[in-house]
Structures are given as C-alpha cells and as structure tokens.
C-alpha cells in the first residue's frame, strides 16, 4: 500500500521558530523530582489477590528504606467497596514511620477522615475527577456536589493541621465520557487548590493520553495553578506513561506518582497494565541526572518482595531486565 | 484512581474512546471499511456494543474532528521501519516456519508500512531463524510502494540477497570495539572495510544501502559509549554511501539525556534527513527516547510489531519497541505515518499466535483483552 500523503487539517503553529524551544526544553528539566509512591494503595487496590496486613506493612517499610519520601500507605474506604484496604487502620498503625517520610492515606469522606486521624494519619488525599460521568459512577454525585463534600473535609483538616493532597482523575480522557477538555481539568484543579490542597495530582486514569495531549492539559492547568503545586499520575495502559511523564517534566512539573513493580491493573480494560513502574521512572530520572533520593537496588528488592507475595510477575521493565531467570 | 471498586470492569463507551482517542483512527488510511468494523465487533471488548455499533462507528469515523495537539517542532511525517520479521524473529527462540514468515510479511505489507525488513542473509549456523532467507525473499508478495530491505553482513550475503530478488540492503556496524569483535569477530575498522565492499557493490547496482550503528547509547561489554564514537562510525557508513543511518540503543540502556547528547553529536556531521533511531525497550525507556529524538527533528523510527524479539543480553528482558505502541503515540501527537494501527495489531496477533507468545505491546494487551 503506498504511503499516504494526504494532508490533514491541523492547527498551524510556527514550527520552525519553536523547534529551538523544544530541544532546549531538556535543559529546563527539574534538578530534582519528588516521587510519590502509590504502590501500597493504588497498586494493591487494583490487584486481585488479597495481601495480608504483615505483608503490606513489610512492603511499606521496605519502600521507606529505599529512600522514597512520600508513600501512600492505604485507603480509609469501606471494605465493602475495596476489600484489599479493609485493614487500613492496622496498616497505618503497624508501619515504621521514618523521619522525613510522609505516609498519606486516601479518604473518601469525613467519616474516613476521622478514622484516618484516629489511626495516626498526618496527611490525607481526596479524589476528584474532571469528568461528570466518572464522578457520578464513582462517588454517586456531581462534580459540584463532590466539592461541597471535600470542602467539609478540607476545613476539618485545616483545623487539625493535616495536609491534604488532591487527585483529579481522567485528566487526559474518561472511560465514560471519552474526551476531556483541558479547561475542565484546569477548573477542577483550581478549585482543589483554592480549597486548600497543597498539591494536586493529575491522573491519566485510563492511560489513553499521549505527550501532546499532556502538554495541552498542563498548559491550561498551569495558567491557574503554580507548577510547584502539581504532580502527574500516568497510567501505562497503552505504554505511554513514561513519555507522558517526560513531557510533564519538560513543562516544569517536578512531582511524579508511580507504583513499585507497576502494581495495579487497569480496572477498565481487562488484562491491561496500570500504573507506571517506579523502577522504570527512577531509571529514567537517574539517567537524566535528576535527583530522586531513591536507592534503585532497594526499590527492586521491595518490588520483588511484593510480586512474590502476590504471586505475579513484575510489570517493571527494569526489574525484568535485571532479574535472572 | 480513588475508591473505584475493582468490581467495576468494562467502561460504557469504548466506541467513544476509539472515536476520540485516535488510537484506532487513522483517517490518513481512510475510514474503517466494513470488514474492519465487523472484526471490531468480534473482539471481546466490543461485545457489549454490538447492536448499532457498526452504524455509529462508521458514521463517526467519517466525522472525526482531528483535534490533536501538534507539539511544536515535531516533524510532520514519520516513517516507520518495521523490523519485526528480521530483528524481531531473529531473537525469538521458536523457529518460525517459512510459510508463516511469508504470511506475516504479506500482512504487514497491507498495513500502510512503507519499509519492512524481511530477513537476513547471514550464515544459518549463526542465526538459525534466518536460514530460510532465500525462500522468504522469493516467497513474499512485493507490494508497490513498499520496500523490503534485507541484512547483508558481507559480500557473499549480498550476492545471495540480490540473486533472491532483494532491492535494498542493510549493513550492521557498531560503535563499540568489543561488541564488534564479539558479534562479527573483527574490529570496527575491519568491519568498515567489509561494509565498504558491500555498499560499493550495492551502489554500483543501484541498490540502496542502510547502515545500522549498534550500541549507540551503551554496550553490554564496554558500558558507556561516547557520542563522538557513534558519530565517527555513523559518518563512515554515511560517506561510504549508506542513504540512512539507524542509531540503535541495542541493550535499551539509554535515557532521554543520553539520546539527546548522542544525537547532538551525530547531527553535526550527518544531515537530519539521513538519520533514524532504533530503540530497545529493555528498561522501558524506548518511547521516552523516541519522543526525545522526534523533538530533535528525527523522523524515521524503527520498531517491531508486538515488540517481538527479546534482548539477548538480559534474559527475560524485552527487546524492540512495539510498533503498535509507537503508532499510538504518533497518532496521539497528530503525526502522519500512513500506517493503520488496527491492521498492525491484527498482524501482531497473528505472529504471536504462531510463535505462541503473548504480545509485548501494551496497546494490544489493552485492546485484545485477556
């Protein structure tokens, strides 16, 4: 079949003059990146096999020793919805709390917040979405109504001196609505920021995004929220996570979420992968000379440990390449 | 993802995803034809949407609003060089029968790919998988507009290739002395001498020659490889007459920074239009490295359907970047490739079944769900 040369309608941009910008963007990469490890929560939450409390605690302790500075430990949701997280209080109480490391926990509502604080949480995360349908299906209310719920949590957190991180799901696409406008993402992110979230993690929930779309979304969001308050949370369902993360770094984002061993499948596409593997992310950042504070060897050990406990193969390419068969 | 119960499985609008996320859409290759639509319906993931699906999809494909983001500075067209049948299969343990190889290549020829590396005229003692090189070369249907280069390590291989009907060849150099010695049993300088013979004969017969430089971002024996060395070897191959130089991250150790430094050096000596990148995904870095290369203006990328081919230097590790995942990224970036992602996925499915392995392509895994 002959190569197609039909021209497509596309937005005209001054390509030649902007080439210099794109190549020098590598020089403007952050000098250090904070990695938010979500394996014990986002990862395990989406794994079929239930893992025992001692195993979860050991995993988190191993991750602490690997040098990660933020490890999302668990989720104070009803065990009816997320059986894997039923032992949230025991996990939070059982882990070693290393100085200099924070252990945020997910909370869906005020009740969960109170339980988390009672169990010793010093930081919590709340989950919004840039999609109305996703919000309805996920927490059974509209985006506007969800803000009212979150506002109550944020006020309570402020009184208790507890930091709150906000997550925005579906920033590059929604499994129900499809396309999501960057303006909508910016609106939701801005709301979270103004309500008091110190950081907002922008999640490509179904991994459909590609670097250009990541750039468009971040351009819109950065007009409303300072880059330093932003993080990206890319899923690798279509293999795009690291390329999308690189684009985010080029745009000035310096906080990246990832999951050891790439734990957690995508609940929206059977057999598909989910989170970006922390090992693969660290490999790239180290190669770029960006400081992370993470000891890759210890991280690999943690990944190996949890994969054995889950009886599954790692989704990290770095781990696959370095392990001997 | 917050408190989404893992019980929530299939989303409700895959057809919207397909329409709007372009991974299936390739309006360059034309709207999906009825045959493709019916195959879509047969795929597991679309079963819930069978009724009315064909009508809605056909209609919507015709009206796709091509609203993608054109990242500034990127080339408008990217040529994909498909190396699955050669680089891919060469590193697969299971020996694939000749007729399967031929069927595989014929399927790839119908996807819109314009360059498909068919086989390698090396001694079957070294690469048993390629023992049937002559039969494959003679057996494939050579579609107009598609080129079918073959690897030729020396003059003998070159003559056999030409006798079998090859109209384009490739030679394989390395930027590492140790790799060169271990791989082809001679120094870089000696190998250049051999290649020069081949390339000169090829040019004499009006046969284009492509040059590969292995270990461009690292060597399994020497470790770090300097950009200067890569430039030196590339320049040799280019000046002896190779029309294009494919810079290979053979063991996949490169990261965007080392890719950038290497390309900056090579681009000082060789025109952009004559360069390609060949990234291995052994450490998951391939697409990030390719994005970097695109940002620097490179517009030829090698890949292998289904990510065929493991890495011979790290057992259990992956090898080539998967063509499907590459096309997904390029489509999303609004870059023209001429390739129909869906047809590539079908070819990938075919060869994976033949080789009895699961695909290494994430796009395929997400689409042909287990």
TrEMBL record, chain A:
GO molecular-function term, one example from the UniProt record: hydroxymethylglutaryl-CoA lyase activity
Main location per the UniProt record: mitochondrion
CC per GO annotation: mitochondrial matrix; mitochondrion; peroxisome; protein-containing complex
Pathway: Metabolic intermediate metabolism; (S)-3-hydroxy-3-methylglutaryl-CoA degradation; acetoacetate from (S)-3-hydroxy-3-methylglutaryl-CoA: step 1/1
Pfam families the record matches: HMGL-like
Domain of life: Eukaryota
GO BP term, example: mitochondrion organization
Catalysed conversion reaction: (3S)-3-hydroxy-3-methylglutaryl-CoA = acetoacetate + acetyl-CoA
Keyword Nucleotide-binding carried by entry: no
Subcellular location: Mitochondrion matrix; Peroxisome
Keywords: Acetylation, Disulfide bond, Lipid metabolism, Lyase, Metal-binding, Mitochondrion, Peroxisome
Top EC group: lyase
Record InterPro entries: Aldolase_TIM, HMG_CoA_lyase_AS, HMGL, PYR_CT
Residues covered by the Pyruvate carboxyltransferase domain: 33-300
EC number: 4.1.3.4
Function as written in the Swiss-Prot or TrEMBL entry: Mitochondrial 3-hydroxy-3-methylglutaryl-CoA lyase that catalyzes a cation-dependent cleavage of (S)-3-hydroxy-3-methylglutaryl-CoA into acetyl-CoA and acetoacetate, a key step in ketogenesis. Terminal step in leucine catabolism. Ketone bodies (beta-hydroxybutyrate, acetoacetate and acetone) are essential as an alternative source of energy to glucose, as lipid precursors and as regulators of metabolism.
Subunit record text: Homodimer; disulfide-linked. Can also form homotetramers.
UniProt similarity note: Belongs to the HMG-CoA lyase family.
NCBIfam families recorded: PRK05692.1
The protein's name in its UniProt record: Hydroxymethylglutaryl-CoA lyase, mitochondrial
Species this protein is from: Macaca mulatta
TrEMBL record, chain B:
Reaction equations catalysed: (3S)-3-hydroxy-3-methylglutaryl-CoA = acetoacetate + acetyl-CoA
Keyword Coiled coil: no
GO cellular component: cytosol; endoplasmic reticulum; membrane; perinuclear region of cytoplasm
Entries under InterPro entries matching the protein: Aldolase_TIM, HMGL, PYR_CT
First-level EC class: lyase
Keywords in alphabetical order: Lyase, Metal-binding
Documented EC number(s): 4.1.3.4
Pfam families: HMGL-like (PF00682)
Pathway entry: Metabolic intermediate metabolism; (S)-3-hydroxy-3-methylglutaryl-CoA degradation; acetoacetate from (S)-3-hydroxy-3-methylglutaryl-CoA: step 1/1
Residue intervals of the Pyruvate carboxyltransferase domain: 78-345
Entry's Gene Ontology BP terms: ketone body biosynthetic process; L-leucine catabolic process
Protein name per the record: hydroxymethylglutaryl-CoA lyase
